[in-house]
Each structure stands twice: as structure tokens, then as C-alpha cells.
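fwd from M.: "can u put these together and see what the complex looks like"

so here's what she sent:
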Amino acid sequence: MSNTGDKIVFFQPDQERRKSSYLAQEGISAGFPSPADDFKELRISIDREVVKNEEATFYARVSGESMQGAGLDDGDLLVIDRSLEPQDNKIAVCFIDGEFTVKRLKVEEDCVYLMPENSKYKPIKVTEDNQLIIWGVVTYVVKKV
Amino acid sequence: MVILSNNDGCVIARSNEAKALGIPMGAPAFKFRNEFKKHNIKVFSSNYPLYGDMSNRVMKILETYTPNVEIYSIDEAFLKFEGFDHFDLFTMGLKMRKQVRQWTGIPVSVGLAPTKALSKIANKIAKKFDQKTQGVYCIDSNEKRLKALKWTPIGNVWGVGRQHAKRLKAMQVKTALDFVNLPDEWVKKHMSILGLRLKKDLEGIPSIQLEEVVPSKKSIATTRSFKNILTIFNNLEERITTYALLGAEKLRKQKSCATALHVFVRSNPFDPKSEQYRNGCTITLPHATDSNFILNRYALMGLRSIFKPGIEYKKAGVILLGLTPSFSRQINLFEQDTAKHTALMETLDKIHRRYGPHRMKLASQDLKQTWKMKREHLSNRFTTEMNEIIRVK
């Protein structure tokens, strides 16, 4: 806008021949590009390795020594994947008569046993009187060395 | 089993067994304490971290079935199956239900129908007759649709509020079927275009669209009843600051700014012996903001204007109003601190996300946090807190 005497003259931008230009928002650096850029990979993550199924994964803490023989010690962290079908010989977290327990499943024709791996503990025979939910299959044990 | 509201106030969710025992929705916990004991009803406080995470898992699983999902609330979702003509949707419903159950342990019911309003009814049927339906019900013929509409009382129709239900019942419209038989003109005149859309939906003509993008909230309210009575200004000041900041954090999460706020306090209306007082005030902010400092400053200004000494305060709250998107807010010529605040707030939110809430506070907040929500029956946060995961023998 310029003021010439008592008249005001408006200048308008030229809309007709608008040239578009690229806005480099990330900035352009003039140095030598990193030779490693083309080889970038994701850093190793335990989470990605251990959790195959985020929505079905739960964690539990071992309490006691009933599964010592299978390498599950008191205080260890268990990774449980509920998307896996429970099968014979799998280690599973079970909910039996109102309590959580971790044992190896032994499926026989007409009954299920929850097998400890420590001679001090007895197998649990699941009968009709018990209320059993096989809560989820254990996939990994995380322990502090 | 029953679940109590924030502060263990009243019953907000009941298991089928508790319903059968006649525990009403909204029952004040203190009045029903003996009842709970007598019937051995397990009582739990609200556990939103666990609830939210489990809801998230369920929704994520549902999203693998179709790309068009509307998460309607924490425990409800609409799924649109477009171009699934060659699929048996009933079988898919069964699969969905089974998968959610196995992966998360959450029981869900599935209602299938050509429209949203009908799918709500189908879902009700699936839930009510879960033995017979295996938890999945499909309204896929006109015959089934009419039967379902006849079965549904008008007050239970999705989107028919209490006022409309009352009026409709007065004119002998008792079921969803009666409602559908009303003339279009009447519905449009008395219940607006929304009512007409609902009617069309119930007729099987899709009229209520799937809302995949949840609209931002228009206001954010943070209000609480106190566990104990507060009488001293400084204590109330601490509460108001905390509420303002909680609201501000939610505000930033949805990328909005507030242009006004409302502060209120009140005494305990259930204690007839104490002097009754309630007051509130609304303040227009000088410019739209999401800054802790500015929101807190004006919230406290509001509190000072309504605080009356000698009152036993039981509840207070801060409501952030006139929300506008952060990117399109009107800026003010004289505001100076916004840019600085934005960066600071971002950092603050990051710290809270990483190290848990309440790590950094304003000086007017209580550092020891002597105040706590009453949650005497809280279950563990099994999926969000390492120290609270299940223990297995």
C-alpha cells in the first residue's frame, strides 16, 4: 500500500501466474550424507521377539518352586499367550478352584493332570468336582541372573 | 459381583447374579452394605486402567475383521461389513466371539443386522438369550425384524430418551414396532430429523452412518466428591488445581484449547445438619489456551470468588468449555507466554506418560498427595503395572 497524496493505491498480488515451489520442511543439509542411512534397521527388541500376539499376551510372576525342574523359579516372569490352544505337554497357567497355578498339562483320554516339576509336589488330578480353566499357554520365562 | 463408581459411591455395573438378587443400578454402596454381605456379593472399585486396556485389546481384535469400525464406547463397537456378500456373517460372528473370549477372557455378544439401530436390538437379543443364540443373533429377514421390533419396548430403543419414551407411551406407542408404524411426518415434526433417521434405520434402511472418527469432546469436566469434608481454602485450592490440570492434560491429548472454564463447589446435600451451599462461576479466558498455568490461574480466580468460609465442602470440579482445535485457535495480540508454555506442556505430558501421572506438580498442589480417591475394593492393574500382575504358584 502506498500513500500518494490523498489517494490510496492498493497493490494486489499477481494471482494469475502463480508459481508453485517446493517447501522442504525437513531441511536440506549440504554435508556428506551418512553412508549408514540406506542400511537402517530396527534395533533388536525383546518385546517384539517374545510377544507374538499383543492382544492375547499377559504376564504373570512365579511364586513358589513347583516348576523348578522346568526352569521356572520363584520370582520369574512368565509370558502367556492366550491365543495358543492348550495341548498335552504344554506349560500353562491354570485357574483351578479359585487359584492361579502354573503346571505342565498332561491330557489323558478321560482326564487332565496338572503336573509339577519338583519331586516335593504332587500331580493334581482334575476331576469333575474341580473347576478348571486353562487360562493361557506359557511361551517364555524371563529371569534375572 | 458389583462394581462401584469413582470414590466407591454407587453401583455402576452388576453381574447377572447381582441383578437377579435385585441390586438396582445406581444403588448407593453405603445403603447396601448389609445386602452385599448377606448374599456374599463381591464388591469392586472401578479399575479404569485395567478396563481401558482390556477394551483396547477387544477393539484391536475386532478391527482385524473389517476396516470399518466405530468404537462407540468403552464396551461397544459397530462393525460395517461392506462387500462381505459371500461370507456367512453368522459364522463370522461366532468366530469373533470365540476369539475375543479366548484371547482376552471377555465375553461379548454380537448382533448382526442391515442397520445400526437394528444391530443394537439384535445384540440385545443375543445377550438376553445367550444360551439359545450362542451369543450371536442375526436379523436377516423381514420376519425376524418385525419379531425383534415387537419384542423391544420403546424405552429400550437406542436413541429414544426418557422424555420421548414417556410421550410415546402416552400415545400407546409401546414397542419399537409401534414406533415404526407412526407416520414419517409425525416423527419428523416431534422428534426431528434424528428421530426420522432412527425410524428408517429400524425399517431396515441404513440411515444412521458409521462414525469412524470420534468427534472431539465439546467440554471436559473433572469433578470429584471428596472422601473427607474440606473446609480450608488452601485444601480446596489444591483440589481445584489438580482438577484443572487433569482437564488440561485431557485437553492437550485431544489437541484442543479451552476458551472458558467453569468452577464449582458444593457442600454435602445428604447431610442435612450442615449448612448447605453450592456455587459456581464461569470465566471467559483472555485467549484460547491449553496451558496448565493459565487454566490454573483462572480456575483459582474463580474459586476465590465463590469460596465461602465455614462451609463443609464435599464436592468440587472444573469444567473446560468452548473447546476449539489447537491449530485453528484465535490468537490474541497481547498474549506472550503461549509459545513457551506449549513446549513446556509437551515435555510435562511426556514425563507423565513415561514415569506415571502426578510426577511434576504446580506449587499449589499437594506434593504428598494426602488426598486420594476412595478405592477400598480395588483389583490389581493386571495389564498395565508390572508390580500388580497375577501371581501363579
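replying to her w this: Residues 233-253 of chain B form the longest helix (21 residues).
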